User: What shape does this take?
Amino acid sequence: MALPEAHAVRGNSAAGDSAAGAQSVASAIEHLVAGSQGVITKRIDLALLEGQELLSRTLQRAALGACGLALAAGAWFAAAACLVLLVIPNSNLVLRLAAFALVNAGGAVGLVALAMRGRPQTPVPANNDASSTTEGS
Assistant: This one.
């Protein structure tokens, strides 16, 4: 009879161990979820900071580029005006403005030609049927 009592005692302690084990598993899962949320929050904050830094750098570069373009345009117009005044110093205003327009138009055409020259050409696809018939002949 001692045997069934010992078995009953073991059953009660096993039930207590499983309850404590369930609580420890639940608390471990709770800690895991809390830690994961913390990591996710930190990663989101880091991504937001990186995005703000990228946007700030982009806007700064765009502003500097716009200022550079404005200064370059001013320098171009001053150089074109100097050239017109140097080439035809004693002419009327209409002729000077026409020469100024021609200098600016020539610069624009030159820049467009330079831009088009740098663009890669798309190759024309070869017709496989035509090449196979000429090779077979």
The longest helix spans residues 2-87. The helical segments are 2-87, 93-117, 128-136. Residues 1-12 have pLDDT under 50 and may be disordered.
